[in-house]
Design goal:
By secondary structure, the protein is α+β, with helices and mostly antiparallel strands. 25% of the residues lie in helices and 23% in strands. It has four helices and eight strands. The strands form two sheets. Strands 3-4-5-6-7 form a five-stranded antiparallel beta sheet, with no helix packed on it. Strand 5 and strand 6 form a beta hairpin. The longest helix has 27 residues.
Length: 207
């Protein structure tokens, strides 16, 4: 039983999403394995599931499919989620996601010139902000916004292990916690060895 394939009873409308969860051909099971791998080091990862906007206003699901409008998911590292708010039950009230648009990249362009964007999701709307350059005191500029018809923030959290001491905040425990002391000790010993070798070499050169 444990080695068998997972069987899901899902509506037919979700089958395309299960077959192509990221919009690039990766099925849902493989995509979730990627997500949990990303969550192991920081302890958790964020997964945004949304339907991108398309030109026009599809009047039916068939028309939306014909226009290429479909559900897909994107993972975000905790480093790219600078802020959020939760209610008393631990449900997200809003969340800020940071990213750089790949459409602005070019083979010989300077990545530093690509504007950092912030997508803020609320329970009833979303907003897109562009960072105001290198000035940390300058506020981002609002460039787009729209409604969120599902009534919840479309972001879920994948945990390596839940940090119960931080509950209900969406914070996990890293898989490296158990070996962190050994890694630190090895790093310190290696650093001392490098310093010892450097001093010995300097003494030899001095003679």
């Amino acid at each position: 039983v444990l080695s068998g394939e997972i069987e899901r009873n899902v509506p037919s409308g979700l089958l395309p999403f299960l077959a192509d969860a990221d919009g690039s051909g990766m099925d849902r099971d493989a995509w979730m394995r990627v997500g949990f791998t990303l969550a192991q080091v920081p302890g958790h990862a964020f997964c945004l599931t949304e339907i991108p906007a398309v030109a026009g206003d599809p009047a039916s699901a068939a028309e939306a499919t014909a226009l290429g409008q479909r559900v897909y998911s994107t993972f975000f590292s905790p480093l790219d989620v600078p802020n959020w708010a939760i209610d008393e039950r631990g449900e997200l009230e809003w969340i800020v996601l940071r990213y750089k648009p790949s459409a602005e990249a070019s083979p010989f362009g300077d990545e530093k010139n690509i504007s950092i964007r912030y997508r803020v999701w609320y329970r009833d709307k979303w907003q897109e902000w562009v960072a105001a350059g290198d000035d940390p005191s300058a506020l981002p500029t609002l460039v787009a916004e729209g409604p969120n018809p599902i009534g919840r923030v479309p972001v879920d959290v994948l945990y390596n292990a839940r940090d119960v001491s931080r509950y209900p905040h969406p914070i996990g425990c890293s898989a490296l916690v158990g070996v962190a002391d050994d890694i630190r000790a090895h790093f310190n010993l290696t650093s001392l060895l490098d310093e010892q070798l450097a001093e010995q070499t300097f003494a030899s050169l001095a003679v």
